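Entry 14. Structure prediction run on the chain below.
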Amino acid sequence: MEELAKQFYMDGCIINQWKKTPLYDRFMSTLKEIYDEKLRDGFQLKQKYPHSFDIRPQAFEYDSSIIDILFENDVHKILRDAIGSSAILTHVQIRNAFSYPEKGHSYQMWHRDSYVYGDKGYGNLPPGYKIIFYPSFENPSEPVLSVVKGSHIKMMENQEKDWEVDRNKLHTLNNNNDDFLFFDVSLQHSTEHVKTKNQRIIYNFNHRCFAHRYEDAKKCQEMWNEGCIKYA
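Output returned:
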Protein backbone atom coordinates (compact mmCIF):
# COMPACT_ATOMS: atom_id res chain seq x y z
CA MET A 1 0.00 0.00 0.00
CA GLU A 2 2.77 2.45 0.95
CA GLU A 3 4.74 1.69 -2.22
CA LEU A 4 1.64 2.16 -4.40
CA ALA A 5 0.89 5.54 -2.83
CA LYS A 6 4.51 6.64 -3.29
CA GLN A 7 4.62 5.54 -6.91
CA PHE A 8 1.38 7.31 -7.73
CA TYR A 9 2.52 10.51 -6.01
CA MET A 10 5.86 10.51 -7.85
CA ASP A 11 4.66 9.45 -11.31
CA GLY A 12 1.02 10.56 -11.33
CA CYS A 13 0.06 7.32 -13.05
CA ILE A 14 -0.12 3.56 -12.59
CA ILE A 15 -0.60 0.78 -15.15
CA ASN A 16 -2.64 -2.26 -14.09
CA GLN A 17 -3.88 -5.36 -15.90
CA TRP A 18 -7.43 -6.65 -16.17
CA LYS A 19 -8.26 -10.02 -14.63
CA LYS A 20 -9.27 -12.47 -17.36
CA THR A 21 -12.69 -13.75 -16.24
CA PRO A 22 -16.15 -14.31 -17.74
CA LEU A 23 -17.01 -10.73 -16.74
CA TYR A 24 -13.96 -9.48 -18.65
CA ASP A 25 -15.18 -11.43 -21.72
CA ARG A 26 -18.59 -9.77 -21.46
CA PHE A 27 -16.95 -6.35 -21.02
CA MET A 28 -14.81 -6.84 -24.12
CA SER A 29 -17.77 -8.12 -26.13
CA THR A 30 -19.72 -5.00 -25.13
CA LEU A 31 -16.92 -2.69 -26.23
CA LYS A 32 -16.57 -4.55 -29.54
CA GLU A 33 -20.30 -4.13 -30.14
CA ILE A 34 -19.88 -0.36 -29.77
CA TYR A 35 -16.69 -0.37 -31.84
CA ASP A 36 -18.60 -2.11 -34.65
CA GLU A 37 -21.42 0.45 -34.24
CA LYS A 38 -23.99 -2.32 -33.74
CA LEU A 39 -25.72 -0.43 -30.97
CA ARG A 40 -28.56 -1.50 -28.72
CA ASP A 41 -31.89 0.27 -28.85
CA GLY A 42 -31.87 3.69 -27.21
CA PHE A 43 -28.17 4.38 -27.77
CA GLN A 44 -26.30 6.29 -30.45
CA LEU A 45 -22.85 7.63 -31.26
CA LYS A 46 -22.54 11.42 -31.32
CA GLN A 47 -19.58 13.62 -32.16
CA LYS A 48 -17.94 15.48 -29.27
CA TYR A 49 -14.45 16.16 -30.66
CA PRO A 50 -13.41 16.23 -34.33
CA HIS A 51 -13.23 12.76 -35.89
CA SER A 52 -14.49 10.98 -32.77
CA PHE A 53 -17.88 9.78 -31.56
CA ASP A 54 -19.11 9.06 -28.02
CA ILE A 55 -21.85 6.70 -26.93
CA ARG A 56 -25.02 8.51 -25.82
CA PRO A 57 -26.99 9.10 -23.69
CA GLN A 58 -24.90 7.52 -20.86
CA ALA A 59 -22.14 4.98 -21.43
CA PHE A 60 -22.39 3.46 -17.95
CA GLU A 61 -25.99 2.42 -18.68
CA TYR A 62 -25.12 0.49 -21.84
CA ASP A 63 -24.19 -2.73 -20.01
CA SER A 64 -23.66 -3.65 -16.34
CA SER A 65 -20.15 -4.99 -17.10
CA ILE A 66 -18.94 -1.42 -17.70
CA ILE A 67 -19.13 -0.66 -13.96
CA ASP A 68 -18.85 -4.21 -12.60
CA ILE A 69 -15.42 -4.67 -14.19
CA LEU A 70 -14.05 -1.93 -11.92
CA PHE A 71 -15.01 -3.72 -8.73
CA GLU A 72 -13.83 -7.11 -9.98
CA ASN A 73 -10.42 -5.49 -10.49
CA ASP A 74 -10.44 -3.73 -7.09
CA VAL A 75 -10.30 -0.26 -8.61
CA HIS A 76 -12.08 1.17 -5.54
CA LYS A 77 -9.25 -0.19 -3.38
CA ILE A 78 -6.55 1.08 -5.75
CA LEU A 79 -8.10 4.55 -5.52
CA ARG A 80 -8.23 4.37 -1.73
CA ASP A 81 -4.66 3.11 -1.37
CA ALA A 82 -3.12 5.38 -4.03
CA ILE A 83 -4.72 8.72 -3.15
CA GLY A 84 -5.83 8.19 0.44
CA SER A 85 -9.35 9.51 -0.08
CA SER A 86 -12.68 8.27 -1.38
CA ALA A 87 -13.03 9.66 -4.88
CA ILE A 88 -16.27 8.81 -6.67
CA LEU A 89 -17.01 7.76 -10.22
CA THR A 90 -18.74 10.74 -11.82
CA HIS A 91 -18.81 9.95 -15.53
CA VAL A 92 -17.96 7.25 -18.10
CA GLN A 93 -17.15 7.83 -21.76
CA ILE A 94 -16.80 5.29 -24.56
CA ARG A 95 -15.36 6.84 -27.70
CA ASN A 96 -14.59 5.63 -31.21
CA ALA A 97 -11.86 7.74 -32.79
CA PHE A 98 -10.87 7.99 -36.43
CA SER A 99 -7.85 9.22 -38.34
CA TYR A 100 -7.35 12.97 -38.75
CA PRO A 101 -6.96 14.20 -42.36
CA GLU A 102 -3.86 16.11 -41.20
CA LYS A 103 -1.17 13.55 -40.45
CA GLY A 104 0.39 13.85 -37.01
CA HIS A 105 -2.68 15.42 -35.41
CA SER A 106 -5.08 13.98 -32.86
CA TYR A 107 -8.31 15.28 -31.35
CA GLN A 108 -6.56 16.25 -28.09
CA MET A 109 -2.90 17.20 -28.23
CA TRP A 110 -0.79 17.97 -25.13
CA HIS A 111 -2.90 19.28 -22.26
CA ARG A 112 -3.79 19.01 -18.58
CA ASP A 113 -7.43 18.63 -17.55
CA SER A 114 -6.77 20.71 -14.41
CA TYR A 115 -4.03 23.31 -13.96
CA VAL A 116 -2.92 26.53 -12.27
CA TYR A 117 -0.99 29.24 -14.13
CA GLY A 118 -0.18 32.24 -11.96
CA ASP A 119 -3.22 32.84 -9.78
CA LYS A 120 -5.72 31.33 -12.22
CA GLY A 121 -6.97 27.77 -11.90
CA TYR A 122 -8.87 25.67 -14.43
CA GLY A 123 -10.83 22.47 -13.99
CA ASN A 124 -11.59 20.74 -10.72
CA LEU A 125 -9.10 21.69 -8.02
CA PRO A 126 -7.99 19.47 -6.38
CA PRO A 127 -7.71 17.52 -9.64
CA GLY A 128 -9.61 14.35 -10.35
CA TYR A 129 -8.43 11.04 -11.75
CA LYS A 130 -9.06 8.91 -14.80
CA ILE A 131 -8.85 5.29 -15.76
CA ILE A 132 -8.45 4.88 -19.49
CA PHE A 133 -8.42 1.67 -21.49
CA TYR A 134 -7.69 1.30 -25.20
CA PRO A 135 -8.78 -2.15 -26.41
CA SER A 136 -7.29 -3.61 -29.57
CA PHE A 137 -9.70 -5.22 -31.99
CA GLU A 138 -9.07 -5.59 -35.72
CA ASN A 139 -5.99 -3.41 -36.26
CA PRO A 140 -2.36 -3.91 -35.16
CA SER A 141 -1.39 -2.38 -31.82
CA GLU A 142 -0.31 1.27 -32.12
CA PRO A 143 0.61 4.21 -29.84
CA VAL A 144 -2.58 5.77 -28.43
CA LEU A 145 -1.68 7.93 -25.43
CA SER A 146 1.43 9.64 -24.06
CA VAL A 147 1.93 11.03 -20.56
CA VAL A 148 4.79 12.90 -18.88
CA LYS A 149 5.42 11.11 -15.60
CA GLY A 150 5.71 13.43 -12.62
CA SER A 151 4.42 16.48 -14.51
CA HIS A 152 1.44 16.82 -12.13
CA ILE A 153 3.83 17.99 -9.37
CA LYS A 154 6.04 20.08 -11.67
CA MET A 155 3.67 22.67 -13.06
CA MET A 156 5.30 25.89 -14.29
CA GLU A 157 3.54 29.21 -13.63
CA ASN A 158 4.37 30.27 -17.17
CA GLN A 159 2.13 28.35 -19.56
CA GLU A 160 4.58 28.42 -22.48
CA LYS A 161 7.39 26.96 -20.37
CA ASP A 162 5.00 24.42 -18.89
CA TRP A 163 4.45 22.94 -22.35
CA GLU A 164 8.14 22.23 -22.89
CA VAL A 165 7.59 18.50 -22.50
CA ASP A 166 10.33 16.59 -20.66
CA ARG A 167 11.01 13.79 -23.13
CA ASN A 168 12.99 11.87 -20.50
CA LYS A 169 9.78 11.35 -18.51
CA LEU A 170 7.63 10.52 -21.53
CA HIS A 171 5.69 7.26 -21.44
CA THR A 172 3.62 6.09 -24.40
CA LEU A 173 0.86 3.51 -24.13
CA ASN A 174 -0.11 1.20 -27.00
CA ASN A 175 -3.63 -0.15 -27.32
CA ASN A 176 -3.91 -3.71 -26.06
CA ASN A 177 -6.44 -5.88 -24.26
CA ASP A 178 -4.54 -6.20 -20.98
CA ASP A 179 -3.51 -2.81 -19.60
CA PHE A 180 -5.46 0.11 -18.21
CA LEU A 181 -3.94 3.39 -17.06
CA PHE A 182 -4.93 5.19 -13.86
CA PHE A 183 -3.70 8.80 -13.73
CA ASP A 184 -4.03 12.22 -12.12
CA VAL A 185 -5.75 14.51 -14.66
CA SER A 186 -3.32 17.37 -13.98
CA LEU A 187 -0.65 15.16 -15.59
CA GLN A 188 0.48 16.33 -19.03
CA HIS A 189 -1.00 13.93 -21.55
CA SER A 190 -1.77 13.72 -25.25
CA THR A 191 -3.69 11.36 -27.49
CA GLU A 192 -1.60 9.99 -30.33
CA HIS A 193 -2.43 10.18 -34.02
CA VAL A 194 -5.08 7.62 -34.94
CA LYS A 195 -3.87 5.67 -37.96
CA THR A 196 -7.18 4.03 -38.80
CA LYS A 197 -9.78 3.61 -36.05
CA ASN A 198 -9.53 2.87 -32.35
CA GLN A 199 -11.58 3.00 -29.18
CA ARG A 200 -11.10 4.15 -25.62
CA ILE A 201 -13.22 3.90 -22.46
CA ILE A 202 -12.62 6.66 -19.94
CA TYR A 203 -13.69 6.49 -16.29
CA ASN A 204 -13.74 9.88 -14.58
CA PHE A 205 -13.27 10.06 -10.81
CA ASN A 206 -13.55 13.20 -8.70
CA HIS A 207 -13.45 14.23 -5.08
CA ARG A 208 -16.89 14.10 -3.48
CA CYS A 209 -17.09 17.88 -3.12
CA PHE A 210 -17.55 18.07 -6.92
CA ALA A 211 -20.38 15.53 -7.13
CA HIS A 212 -22.97 18.27 -7.71
CA ARG A 213 -21.27 19.20 -11.00
CA TYR A 214 -22.27 15.85 -12.49
CA GLU A 215 -25.97 15.73 -11.74
CA ASP A 216 -26.70 14.37 -15.23
CA ALA A 217 -24.84 11.19 -14.23
CA LYS A 218 -26.10 10.97 -10.66
CA LYS A 219 -27.05 7.34 -11.18
CA CYS A 220 -23.42 6.61 -12.02
CA GLN A 221 -22.37 7.97 -8.62
CA GLU A 222 -25.06 5.92 -6.90
CA MET A 223 -23.91 2.72 -8.61
CA TRP A 224 -20.33 3.45 -7.56
CA ASN A 225 -21.31 4.10 -3.95
CA GLU A 226 -23.37 0.90 -3.82
CA GLY A 227 -20.46 -1.10 -5.23
CA CYS A 228 -17.99 0.37 -2.76
CA ILE A 229 -20.23 -0.78 0.11
CA LYS A 230 -20.85 -4.22 -1.40
CA TYR A 231 -17.18 -4.92 -2.16
CA ALA A 232 -15.56 -3.11 0.79
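The longest helix spans residues 22-35.
Filed with the rest of this week's runs.
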